[in-house]
UniProtKB/TrEMBL annotation:
Reaction catalysed by this enzyme: 5-amino-1-(5-phospho-D-ribosyl)imidazole-4-carboxylate + L-aspartate + ATP = (2S)-2-[5-amino-1-(5-phospho-beta-D-ribosyl)imidazole-4-carboxamido]succinate + ADP + phosphate + 2 H(+)
Organism of origin: Azospirillum doebereinerae
Pathway recorded for this protein: Purine metabolism; IMP biosynthesis via de novo pathway; 5-amino-1-(5-phospho-D-ribosyl)imidazole-4-carboxamide from 5-amino-1-(5-phospho-D-ribosyl)imidazole-4-carboxylate: step 1/2
The name this protein goes by in its record: Phosphoribosylaminoimidazole-succinocarboxamide synthase
Tagged with keyword Ligase: yes
Any Pfam family matching the protein: SAICAR_synt
Length: 254
């Protein structure tokens, strides 16, 4: 890892120069942060689990035609991804009231929303990722109207697919965050799903008990954080105990 050129280091991942042009190596850390980096900690084994979970979900999404930056998993903590120009907007898809939405509007946590709601946040640690509107995004040139249309359409498709997938293993997809990038191939540009999909950026609750199986356990000092991530991987059938061939797919919960 030390011999490769480091391109970028975030709160949960490190990007290194890839083995061939147009690729990067994405390394998953065990570091955890919350509340705009005010709370920091380590979740032992989180990087290994998130690498496997994100690999599985990105692969499934690719199979239904959602374009992603994911190429393949390299080892327990690293995956090969295509180099993209990250769009500085996070899209949050909400199905159930939780987190900041509950706080902002006084809606009790756990209240089903009338329909899925998409919110936009400007990616800036210094500004604490402020919520923005379509007008801000297009006026300031962060994304063109067509880019934004593509991002919204892909987000809704991801939401439909993942909601069903998680429901099949007894999990409720409460909300989740997505990031997108511009992938350039010759003179052609297309919007693709980037970053990761894992319990770090999804709220996942047990369907029967509403037990939280995501990073809220770290945010809210609920304990058993590692076990929650392991449980998500176990239900998906991808606990990293064997090699790459041990991915058997999700186990349906009756």
């Amino acid at each position: 890892m030390t011999r490769r050129r480091r391109i970028y280091e975030g709160k949960a991942k490190v990007l290194f120069e890839g083995p061939e042009p147009g690729t990067l190596v994405q390394y998953f850390k065990d570091d955890a942060s919350a509340f705009n980096n005010q709370k920091k900690g380590v979740i032992t084994g989180k990087g290994v689990l998130n690498n496997r979970i994100s690999e599985y979900l990105m692969s499934r999404l690719s199979e239904i035609g959602v374009p992603t930056h994911f190429v393949r998993r390299l080892n327990m903590r690293e995956q090969l991804v295509r180099e993209v120009e990250i769009i500085p907007i996070e899209l949050v898809v909400r199905n159930v009231a939780a987190g900041s939405l509950s706080q902002r509007f006084g809606i009790p946590e756990g209240t089903p929303l009338p329909r899925s709601i998409i919110e936009y946040y400007y990616k800036s640690d210094e500004l604490h990722d402020p919520m923005v509107s379509e007008e801000h995004i297009t006026a300031f040139g962060w994304a063109a109207p067509q880019d934004l249309d593509d991002m919204v359409a892909l987000s809704l498709r991801v939401n439909d697919y993942l909601s069903g997938l998680f429901l099949g293993i007894g999990l409720k997809l409460v909300d989740f965050k997505l990031e997108f990038g511009r992938l350039w191939e010759n003179e052609e540009m297309r919007i693709v799903l980037a970053d990761e999909i894992s319990p770090d950026n999804c709220r996942l609750w047990d369907v029967k008990t509403n037990e939280k199986l995501d990073k809220d356990r770290f945010r809210q000092d609920l304990g058993r954080v590692e076990e929650a991530y392991q449980e998500v991987a176990r239900r998906l059938g991808i606990l990293p105990e064997g090699g790459p061939s041990d991915v058997k797919g999700p186990k349906t919960i009756q």
